[in-house]
Amino acid sequence: MPDIDARLREDVHLLGELLGRTIRAQYGQGFLDKIELIRTGAKAARRGSAEGAKQLTATLDGLGEDELLPVARAFNQFLNLANIAEQYHRIRRRTPKEPEPFENRVLAELLGRLRKSGLGAEGLARQVAELEIELVLTAHPTEVARRTLIQKYDAIAAQLAVGDHSDLLPEERQAVQEKLQRLIAEAWHTDEIRRTRPTPVDEAKWGFAVIEHSLWHALPAFLRHVDRTLQETLGERLPLEAAPIRFASWMGGDRDGNPNVTAAITREVLLLARWMAADLYLRDVDSLAAELSMQQASDELRGEVGDLAEPYRALLKQLRERLRATRAWAERAIHTGEEPGAEVLQDNRELLEPLQLCYRSLQACGMGVIADGDLLDTLRRAATFGLFLARLDVRQDSTRHARAMGEITEYLGLGNYAEWDEGVRQEFLLEELASRRPLLPANYQASPETAEVLATCRVVAQAPAASLGSYVISMAGQPSDVLAVQLLLKECGLQRPMRVVPLFETLDDLDNAGPCIDRLLSLDSYRTGLAGPQEVMIGYSDSAKDAGTLAAAWAQYRAQEALVDICRNHGVELLLFHGRGGTVG
To answer: Cβ contacts of residue 449 below 8 Å, gap of 6+?
Structure first.
C-alpha cells in the first residue's frame, strides 16, 4: 500500500477521534470498544491474519439487532470524514519543501511543451479560451445526499483549512477542534436517509446546493489559475467572457431515468434555477456595491449613470433591482404561470454588460487591481453559469416517441408508425418536417402518455434557449429516432434549432452508431437544420450491463473512431457526450 501523507493521516486520525467521542457520548464506551474491535480485526484480516479474521467474525456475530444500524452508520460516517480529509488534502497549503500537486502543474507543462513544438502563444491561448467542456450534474434517488449534510461536510473541510495554519495560538487551535467536534456531532445526529422518496424537484435542489456551496466558489478560483498560467507561460490572458467549463443538469429533465419527471416538473425546475441564479448574483452584487465606492470613473460609465459621486454603486444598484425583480418573478411564476415583465432579466448580456462596464472603467482609471478582484470573479461566474445556472438536458426513451407517433398516425388514418420499417418512417418524417402545415389538428385529444410527450415538447419550445442543453434520446438506434423528436418539437412550436442527441447504449446500437449518423448527415434537410456540431452520447453503464465492461469499452472505442471519421468526411464538427456517471466512471 502507498504511504499516506503524514498531514493527511493526522487529519483522518483527528476526525476519527472526534467521531469516536460523539459515538461514546451516545452509546457508551462498550459500544465504541466493539467498533474498535471490528476495525482492528478487519485491518488484520485484510493483511492475512487468521486471528484477525476470527476476531472480526466473532465481534460481528455478537452484535445485537439494535447495534447493527449504529455500527454501519459509524463506519459510513468515518469514511465520509476520511474522504473530506483526503479531498481537502489535495488543495491544502503546501510548505516550501512540498511539491505542488500534479493537477496544478499539468496545464503549464502542457502549454510549455506545445510552445516548444512551435505553436504560437496567441493561437494556444485562443484554443484554451474556446474550449467547451460541459460537466453534467445528475442524480439517482438512492445517491442523493441531503443538503444539510453537504453543508456540514463543507463546514468540516473549512475548519480543516483554518487548522492548517502553523501560527495559531493554542486557544485558536482548541477553538478549531471544538468547532469540528460540534459539526461532527451535528452530522452524526442528522439522519442520512430520507424518510420519504426524494422527488425530482428534491434532486434538482440537491444539484443547486452543489453549485451554491461548491462550484460557485471553485469555478472562479479555477479560472484564476488558468488565467495566471496563461500569463506566465504565454503572456496572454483569459478573455472575460471565456467559459471553457460549463455545467448542465439532468435533474428535472431526465424522464427516462425517473418516470416521475413530468413536463410540469421540468418547467418548475427551470424556474427554480432562475430563482437560485438571481439569488446568488444578488449576493455578489450586494458585496460589489459595498466594495466599489470609488468616485473616479470613465466617461463611458458616467454616460450610463450620470455625474454621480459613486457611479459604480449607482450602476450596480440598478442591476440589483433587476435581479430582485427576476427572483421575485421566478418565485411567483412557479405557482401562477405569470409571464416575465420588462424588468426581469432575460438575456445574459443584461447581466454581463453592467459588470463589464464597471471592469472597463476601473481598468481605464488605473484601478486594475480592484477590477481583477471580486468583480472579475463575478464576471467569470456570469459567463459560466449565466441567468439559468445550469443548462437543463431533457431525456426520453426512443420507444415513447415511437408510440406517440404511432398514436398520431393512426388518428390521422395513416397506419401505425410503430409498425413501419425504417425506410418508411424516414420518408414520412422528412416529408412532415418539410411541410408548412401542422401535422396535428387543433382538436386532437391524445392519450395521457402521448399528451405527456407533447407537453414536454411544449415546455422545451417555450423555455429560453439558453436554459436548455440537449434533448437526449435513450436507446437510440436509427435516424428516425432523431427525426421523430425533431418533428414532435416542431409540432409543439419550437422555432429555433436545438441539439437532438441520440444516445447509443447497447452493443448493437454502438456498432450501428456510425452508419446511423452517416445516414443522418447524408440528408440535406437534416444538415441544413443542424444547430452547431453533431452531438452524440455514448452510453457506458447500459453497454457494460449488455456486453460486459471489457467488450463494452471496445465497442465504445470503435463507435467513437467511426463517428470521428464520418463527421470529418461530412465536414461536420463532432461533439461527444460521455455518459460515464456512477461507479462505471
So the answer is: 400, 403, 404
Residue 32 phi/psi, 5-degree rounding, is -65, -35
Radius of gyration from C-alpha coordinates of the chain = 28
> What pLDDT, in 10s, does the model give residues 476-521?
989 999 999 999 999 999 989 899 999 998 888 999 999 999 999 9
Tell me, yes or no, if 140 is annotated catalytic: yes
Q: What is the pLDDT of residues 525-580, one digit of tens each?
A: 999 888 789 999 998 877 777 778 888 889 999 999 999 999 999 999 999 999 87
Specify the domain boundaries for CATH 3.20.20 within the chain: 394-584
- pLDDT tens per residue across span 8-59: 899 999 999 999 999 999 999 999 999 999 999 999 999 999 999 999 999 9
Residue 34 annotated as catalytic: no
The CATH T-level fold of domain 394-584 is TIM Barrel (3.20.20)
Q: What angle do CA 131, 388, 498 make, to 5 degrees?
A: 65
Catalytic residue among 213, 225, 317, 545: 545
Active-site position among 54, 140, 165, 578: 140
CA-to-CA distance for 281 and 268, rounded, in angstroms? 20
Per-state percent for the chain, helix, strand, coil, to nearest 5:
65, 5, 25
Closest CA to 188 of 355, 21, 365: 21
Does residue 1 register a pLDDT over 60? no
CA-to-CA distance for 273 and 478, rounded, in angstroms?
Answer: 34
CA distances, 206 to each of 16, 139, 242, 384 (Å): 27, 9, 27, 19
pLDDT digits (tens, 9 = 90+) for 403-446: 999 999 999 999 999 999 999 999 999 999 999 999 998 889 99
* CATH architecture label of 119-144+194-389: Up-down Bundle (1.20)
